Amino acid sequence: MPTYTGALPRHFLTGAELSRAELERLIDRALELKAAPYSSGSLERRTVALIFERPSTRTRVSFEAGIVELGGHPMVLRSEDLQLSRGESIRDTALVLSRHVAAIGLRTGPDENLEELARHSSVPVFNMLSARHHPCQALADLLTLRQACGELEGVRVAYVGDGNNVARSLALLGSLAGLHVAVASPAGYTLEDDLAPPPGASGAISLHTDPREAVAGAAAVYTDVWVSMGDEATARERRRDLASYRVDDALLDAAAPGAFALHDLPAHPGEEITAEVLYGERQRIWDQAENRRHAQKALLELLVGSG
């Protein structure tokens, strides 16, 4: 157990920590912060530690820029910068960092690392990516959908491809916000059958094997890379198994009129998405990448506050 006393910090590890009302307010606040990026000084004279055990482009850039816009200082730490690389425990790292920073973000592999950090931290810990969850990406996805569709309640979103951490977080937070998230994956790549919307959710989660069935009526069609970090040994097999789940113009044509593509990036044009869709007019992918910053600023305000 932690060695500090006082109120327990609020963590953001899977997204299930949020109530539906909190999630709605967070998206509303993200819209305000996008309209006026320097309107909040909630992190003034505060430091936020960002620990990267995995490579990153969008997560690092969006969190660093967002923390600066909130008036704070981002302390970027790679594995090799810390004594973690020489055997110091996650517990000791949490106890030390908690004495210096207002919050700690971790981009890691095993979810157990994130849970251990949160268990011993006296400041909020937030998940910048783990093996099973990517909730900060899901917040940006919801912000993008809110801007594009005007509302989230009752909107159908299809995810096609590997049932990974991105798909899981989209399903959990999307259903909490009122979306119907339809996930299409081949056998061996599916999300768990018992995955259910969090308490208080008004949306739904459905699992499919046929991508055209999943996209029917969908306002957006989402995909992710077929070969993620750590999957390199099975890359050829994964590309073969997922080949019929590519997002192209034909799949978008099978969705609702005006449907657009989403992708959390990095993308591999010609694999999970065609270059024509990725760089064309039928996507909101680059808005989605920008929205990481605005959604995460709203999250940091919620976790850290202005006190």
Explain what the structure shows.
By secondary structure, the chain is of the alpha/beta class. The strands form two sheets. Strands 7-6-5-8-9 form a five-stranded parallel sheet. Strands 2-1-3-4 form a four-stranded parallel sheet, with helices on both faces. Helix 4 links the parallel strand 3 and strand 4. The N terminus is likely disordered.
Main attributes of the structure:
307 residues; 11 helices; single chain; alpha/beta; 37% helix; disordered N terminus; 4-stranded parallel sheet; 9 strands; globular
Cα(first) to Cα(last) distance is: 25 Å
List how many beta strands DSSP finds: 9
Largest sheet: 5 strands, parallel
Output the radius of gyration: 19 Å
Number of H- or I-type helical stretches: 11
The percent range for helix content is 25-40%
| Order of helical and strand elements | HEHEHEHEHEHEEHEHHEHH
Low-confidence stretches: 1-6
What is the 3D shape? globular
Question: Regarding quaternary structure, how should these chains be classified?
Answer: single chain
Instruction: Tell me, rounded to a whole number, the average pLDDT.
Output: 94
Strand content: 5-15%
